[in-house]
Each structure stands twice: as C-alpha cells, then as structure tokens.
Amino acid sequence: MGVLFDAFSYRVNKTPDGFYYDRWHGHVFPEISMPEKLYFLDRIISALLTHDKLFIRTDSIEEMIECIGFDAFRMLYNRDELVILDNWWVPAFMYGGDTVLYMNMHEKQYQDKICSRLLERKGLEESRFTNSILKKVCNTSDSDTYDFWDNTSQENMYEDFSFNNRIRALLNIQSETIMSISNEDDTWSAVRLCLFERSLEWSRQLKTDEILFEEEAKRYLIYKSDIHNDSIIQYFDLILYSKGIPNLSILYYNNVISMKDIIRVRDNVAFGKFTSWLENHNYSVQELELALLNGRSNNNQIEKWFRWAVVSSASLFLPSGLIPTLSGIGLSFIEQLLPQFSGQKFPSLYFDCVLSKQFNAKSMNRQLQSKFGF
Fold first, then answer.
1. Which of 79, 293, 326, 365 is deepest in the core (most CB within 10 A)?
2. Looking at the record's lineage, which domain of life comes first (predicted)?
3. Quick one: residue 13, left, alpha or beta (phi over 0 = left, psi -120 to 50 = alpha)?
4. Rounded to an integer, what distance in angstroms lies between the CA atom of residue 311 and that of residue 22?
5. What phi-psi label fits residue 284: left (phi over 0), alpha (psi between -120 and 50 degrees) or beta?
6. Residues 74-117 pLDDT 10s
7. Residue from 203, 246, 247 nearest 221 by CA
C-alpha cells in the first residue's frame, strides 16, 4: 500500500551551456517556486492520506525537505512511513550542431554534496540527520539492483523512441533512432521518455499501488499500453473539495496545519481501515466513487458533483455523539458498533467523520484568515 513519489525527477531544465537536461547541473539545489511547492505539497499530503508509505530516491531528499520541512521529514522517516532508496541517476543529453552526447550517469559519491548543501541552506542538524540516513541506505546490496532497474528503463526508452509509432507520433519524433538524434527537440523527448520508463519500472519492481509523476507522463502511459491510469490521489482532492474541506496544501504552506495533524489522521484506526478497503478494491477510483454514493443516490447534488465535478458542499455526518467514541475503540469493534459503515460504506466514515473533523472547514478558514489579518 505504497506510492512511488517520482514527481521531483521531472524537474529537468535546459542550461545556457548547450542543452543539458539535469536539475542537479552544477551540484546546485534546484530552487522550488511557490506554485511548484503548493503543487508538490498537494500531492504529498494526498498520498499520505491515502497510502501507508511513500517511496523516494536519495536524489529527492532535499526537495522533500524543502516542501514539507525538516521536522516533518524526520518524523515520517523515523516512523518508517517515508522509505528512501539509494539512487542518483541522471539521463542527460547535450545537443550541439550535428552532435548529440548522451550521458547515462549513475553517481556514487553524491552523499557529501547533499550534506554540504543542507548545511549551507538549512543547518547542522539537518545535515547530520541526513548523513545518518545516507550511511544506512547507500552502497548496500540493493544499490546495484536499483542501477539494474535504471538500465532496464533505458532499454525500454530506446525501444519506445525508435520503434513505438504511437509514442513517436505523440512526441513528434523526427529522428530515426535513439542513436542518431537529429534535432534538439528529440533530445528533450528522449529524456522525458527515459524518466517515464524509469517511473514505470521502479513502481513495478517495488509493487507500489500508484506512481506520482508529471501530468504529461500519463499521456505516455495511454499511448504506450492503452492504460487509463485514474489516480486515487488526484480524485482524493475532488472528494475533499466536495466535502467543503479547505485546500490542505494551502493550509500547510501557511502553517495552519502541520505534519502532526496529518499523522493524527494516519494514526486513527479509520485510516488503516480505509487504506485496507482501497487495497481490496485495487485502488479503483470508480469503486471509491460508488462506495461514497452507495445508498445516497437520492442526494442528487453529491451524485452530480462526483460525476461532473460540480461543487457540492453537502456532507454526510454520523450523529455527533458517536464521533468521540470512535477514537477510543479497537479496530475489531468498529464494524460491530457501526454496521452502517461496514463494507462499501466505510469510506464515508473516513471522509465525513475523521477528515472533516480533523480539518474542520470553519476552524481552518478562520485560522487562515487570521494569518492575513482578516
């Protein structure tokens, strides 16, 4: 019940000295803008509220700290809810004139650079803690396995680029093969394909339930294998919106909520029950929608919103007297005391009682307004 958080990998850029696609070019931290941070926060928070674990690679440590904060990062890692894997691989191309140089770079001595950047940008505590993580996860027996996954991804990219006509048409690839790239735009396509194949291969090997990558990569998935990958994580945002729960990424960014609030939800017995329900239903968006609507089809506003993404603020609550009782009872007794939430009905308990209570709209909006002097 984990998710591969691979969104940071797609922050590739061109640089002035040729066309070099590497967000870590020059070993300088790739600054994250405010809109970017809100985007990543939204995905991270939604993933934490729908999955048991987040998997990231070591090349994403600094960006994760930048987005959620060091205390939150340390908290998740110490709770074994953030799993960090040793890998620093940069598929990079340079194009100049008639020459294309492809570099498959697996860095092995990157640990000191991470710690030095953190020491300069964040502080001694952050640098030392990260160093302790790197000593545990780097250069282990698994590291070569991760490199092999990357090599498999590279081979899949070669095949897509050269022989998959649907992909070639989607990206308007003009070059005949990966070994004879004839223009700068095709180098960009090659890098994106490499990252996409890497996301797929790593997710397959880790047996994660979802992948968090860039939006464009979803089009690749459809063109490559006719798979329409609806995301529980993205659909989760729509459900929160329909329930009148404020945007959690904005609340987090403005320090109205913290990782402790998210962990309170994760520690609630209903969270484990909800994630088990998702796993049993193969993380199907359609099944979740049906479960939330089951027995409530007479509420046309909610049904209309779920089917057409029209906002509805209607919420379905348990009697208030039952809510405090839930936090103190064991998992094995919930379905006995609340039979109406067994089976298909259980997602409603998670959204209407747990999340709506923890992130109460009136309270959250009041706190957010006070931040800006309203």
1. 326
2. Bacteria
3. beta
4. 40
5. beta
6. 999 999 999 999 998 877 666 665 656 666 567 778 999 999 99
7. 203
C-alpha distances in angstroms, 352 versus 315, 320, 323?
7, 11, 10
What is the tens place of the pLDDT at every residue in 176-221? 888 778 777 888 888 888 888 898 899 999 999 888 876 666 667 6
Q: Could you tell me the residue ranges of all domains in the chain? A: 2-225, 232-371
Give the C-alpha separation, 128 to 118, whole Å.
Answer: 9
303: alpha, beta or left? (left if phi > 0; alpha if psi -120 to 50): alpha
Nearest Cα neighbor of 344 from 289, 269, 301 is 289
pTM score over 0.90: no
For residue 327, the tally of other CB atoms under 10 A from its CB is: 14
Provide the terminal-to-terminal Cα distance of the chain, rounded to the nearest Å: 41
Residues whose CB falls within 8 Å of the CB of residue 366, separated by 6 or more in sequence, listed in order:
none
What region does 14 belong to: left with phi over 0, alpha with psi -120 to 50, or beta?
beta
Give the Cα separation of 261 and 156 in Å (integer): 41
Residues 6+ apart with CB under 8 A from 21: 12, 13, 14, 91, 92, 93, 187, 188, 191
Distance between CA 351 and CA 247 in Å, rounded? 14
Q: What residues pair up with 17 in beta bridges, in sequence order?
A: none
The string of pLDDT tens digits covering residues 145-156 is: 998 998 898 888
Does residue 211 contact residue 25 with C-beta atoms inside 8 Å?
A: no
* pLDDT of res. 24: 82
CA separation (Å) from 300 to 14, 297, 305? 49, 6, 8
CA distance 58 to 84: 6
Per DSSP, the residues of 29-75 read: -----HHHHHHHHHHHHHHHTT-SEEEEEGGGHHHHHHHH-HHHHHH
- Name residue 110's amino acid: Y
Over the stretch 216-253, which tens digit does the pLDDT of each residue have? 666 676 666 655 556 888 889 889 998 889 999 999 99
